[in-house]
Amino acid sequence: MLLGVALFVAVAKGSVVGWIGTALCGYMLVALLIGRLRPTILVIGPDRMDLIGPFGGRRSFAYLCCGRFKVWEQPLPGGNLAFWLTFDYSGHRPVRWWQRTNSKWAGANTQLRADGFELSSYAIAKLLNSYRAAALSKSEGA
Protein backbone atom coordinates (compact mmCIF):
# COMPACT_ATOMS: atom_id res chain seq x y z
CA MET A 1 0.00 0.00 0.00
CA LEU A 2 2.81 2.40 0.91
CA LEU A 3 4.54 1.58 -2.33
CA GLY A 4 1.39 2.43 -4.26
CA VAL A 5 0.94 5.74 -2.43
CA ALA A 6 4.58 6.73 -2.96
CA LEU A 7 4.39 5.79 -6.64
CA PHE A 8 1.19 7.81 -7.05
CA VAL A 9 2.81 10.86 -5.43
CA ALA A 10 5.89 10.49 -7.62
CA VAL A 11 3.94 10.13 -10.83
CA ALA A 12 1.21 12.66 -10.07
CA LYS A 13 3.44 15.46 -8.89
CA GLY A 14 6.82 14.52 -10.32
CA SER A 15 8.24 14.71 -6.80
CA VAL A 16 11.76 13.53 -5.96
CA VAL A 17 10.52 12.61 -2.47
CA GLY A 18 7.91 10.33 -4.02
CA TRP A 19 10.55 8.54 -6.08
CA ILE A 20 12.77 8.15 -3.01
CA GLY A 21 9.79 6.73 -1.10
CA THR A 22 9.06 4.35 -3.97
CA ALA A 23 12.68 3.16 -4.04
CA LEU A 24 12.74 2.70 -0.26
CA CYS A 25 9.49 0.72 -0.25
CA GLY A 26 10.76 -1.38 -3.14
CA TYR A 27 13.96 -2.13 -1.23
CA MET A 28 11.96 -3.15 1.86
CA LEU A 29 9.72 -5.39 -0.27
CA VAL A 30 12.74 -7.14 -1.81
CA ALA A 31 14.33 -7.60 1.65
CA LEU A 32 11.06 -9.04 2.99
CA LEU A 33 10.77 -11.47 0.08
CA ILE A 34 14.40 -12.60 0.43
CA GLY A 35 13.89 -13.13 4.17
CA ARG A 36 10.79 -15.23 3.51
CA LEU A 37 12.13 -17.23 0.59
CA ARG A 38 15.66 -17.79 1.94
CA PRO A 39 15.58 -17.48 5.74
CA THR A 40 18.66 -17.61 7.96
CA ILE A 41 19.63 -21.21 8.76
CA LEU A 42 20.98 -22.27 12.15
CA VAL A 43 23.27 -25.30 11.94
CA ILE A 44 24.06 -26.88 15.31
CA GLY A 45 27.11 -29.12 15.41
CA PRO A 46 29.05 -30.84 18.20
CA ASP A 47 31.77 -28.15 18.43
CA ARG A 48 30.13 -25.00 17.06
CA MET A 49 27.00 -23.45 15.68
CA ASP A 50 26.81 -21.74 12.30
CA LEU A 51 24.40 -19.14 11.00
CA ILE A 52 24.02 -19.16 7.23
CA GLY A 53 22.44 -15.97 5.93
CA PRO A 54 20.13 -15.53 2.92
CA PHE A 55 23.06 -14.67 0.64
CA GLY A 56 25.28 -17.50 1.88
CA GLY A 57 27.30 -15.53 4.44
CA ARG A 58 28.33 -17.70 7.38
CA ARG A 59 29.00 -16.78 11.00
CA SER A 60 30.47 -19.51 13.20
CA PHE A 61 30.52 -19.59 16.98
CA ALA A 62 32.69 -22.20 18.75
CA TYR A 63 31.06 -23.39 21.97
CA LEU A 64 34.36 -23.13 23.84
CA CYS A 65 34.30 -19.35 23.22
CA CYS A 66 30.62 -18.94 24.15
CA GLY A 67 29.16 -18.02 27.51
CA ARG A 68 25.87 -19.45 28.74
CA PHE A 69 23.02 -19.09 26.20
CA LYS A 70 20.01 -17.11 27.41
CA VAL A 71 16.85 -15.69 25.88
CA TRP A 72 16.16 -11.96 25.95
CA GLU A 73 12.54 -10.93 25.46
CA GLN A 74 12.57 -7.52 23.78
CA PRO A 75 9.30 -5.60 24.20
CA LEU A 76 7.79 -4.32 20.96
CA PRO A 77 4.89 -1.94 20.31
CA GLY A 78 1.45 -3.42 20.74
CA GLY A 79 2.49 -5.69 23.60
CA ASN A 80 4.42 -8.04 21.30
CA LEU A 81 7.81 -9.54 22.05
CA ALA A 82 10.87 -10.30 19.94
CA PHE A 83 12.99 -13.21 21.18
CA TRP A 84 16.79 -12.98 20.99
CA LEU A 85 19.32 -15.66 21.78
CA THR A 86 22.04 -13.91 23.80
CA PHE A 87 25.49 -15.02 24.92
CA ASP A 88 28.93 -13.61 25.58
CA TYR A 89 31.36 -14.52 22.82
CA SER A 90 35.04 -14.09 23.63
CA GLY A 91 36.82 -11.78 21.26
CA HIS A 92 33.63 -9.95 20.26
CA ARG A 93 33.40 -6.34 21.35
CA PRO A 94 30.41 -4.23 20.29
CA VAL A 95 31.80 -1.21 18.43
CA ARG A 96 28.84 0.98 17.54
CA TRP A 97 26.71 2.79 20.11
CA TRP A 98 23.56 0.80 19.32
CA GLN A 99 25.48 -2.47 19.65
CA ARG A 100 26.74 -1.39 23.08
CA THR A 101 23.20 -0.36 24.06
CA ASN A 102 21.74 -3.69 22.91
CA SER A 103 24.51 -5.54 24.76
CA LYS A 104 23.70 -3.63 27.93
CA TRP A 105 19.96 -4.33 27.65
CA ALA A 106 20.41 -7.98 26.68
CA GLY A 107 23.11 -8.65 29.28
CA ALA A 108 25.48 -10.24 26.74
CA ASN A 109 27.73 -9.03 23.93
CA THR A 110 26.17 -11.15 21.15
CA GLN A 111 22.50 -11.36 20.17
CA LEU A 112 20.86 -13.50 17.49
CA ARG A 113 17.21 -13.14 16.48
CA ALA A 114 15.63 -16.44 17.50
CA ASP A 115 11.96 -16.25 16.55
CA GLY A 116 12.33 -17.56 13.00
CA PHE A 117 13.37 -21.13 13.70
CA GLU A 118 11.33 -24.32 14.10
CA LEU A 119 12.14 -24.64 17.82
CA SER A 120 11.18 -22.07 20.42
CA SER A 121 13.85 -19.66 21.58
CA TYR A 122 13.99 -21.34 24.97
CA ALA A 123 14.37 -24.81 23.41
CA ILE A 124 17.24 -23.53 21.23
CA ALA A 125 18.97 -21.99 24.27
CA LYS A 126 18.58 -25.25 26.22
CA LEU A 127 19.91 -27.31 23.31
CA LEU A 128 22.90 -25.01 22.74
CA ASN A 129 23.71 -25.02 26.47
CA SER A 130 23.80 -28.83 26.42
CA TYR A 131 26.15 -28.80 23.40
CA ARG A 132 28.28 -26.16 25.12
CA ALA A 133 28.50 -28.24 28.30
CA ALA A 134 29.52 -31.30 26.27
CA ALA A 135 32.20 -29.33 24.42
CA LEU A 136 33.53 -27.90 27.70
CA SER A 137 33.69 -31.33 29.37
CA LYS A 138 35.34 -32.78 26.28
CA SER A 139 38.02 -30.05 26.31
CA GLU A 140 38.64 -30.51 30.05
CA GLY A 141 39.02 -34.26 29.59
CA ALA A 142 41.47 -33.91 26.72
Describe the structure.
The chain is of the alpha+beta class and 142 residues long. The protein folds into 2 domains: 2-36; 39-141, PH-domain like. Helix content is 46%, strand content 22%. It has helices at 2-13, 16-37, 97-106, 121-141, and strands at residues 41-44, 48-52, 58-62, 70-75, 81-87, 110-113. The strands form 2 sheets. The protein has a 3-stranded antiparallel β-sheet, covered by helices on one side. A 3-stranded antiparallel β-sheet has the order 4-5-6, sandwiched between helices. Helix 1 (2-13) runs antiparallel to helix 2 (16-37). The protein is elongated, with a radius of gyration of 20 Å. The relative contact order is 0.12. The model has no long low-confidence stretch (mean pLDDT 80).
What are its keywords?
single chain; 142 residues; alpha+beta; PH-domain like; 2 domains; three-stranded antiparallel sheet; elongated
Topology at a glance:
Layout: H1 2-13, H2 16-37, E1 41-44, E2 48-52, E3 58-62, E4 70-75, E5 81-87, H3 97-106, E6 110-113, H4 121-141
Antiparallel strand pairs: 1-2, 2-3, 4-5, 5-6
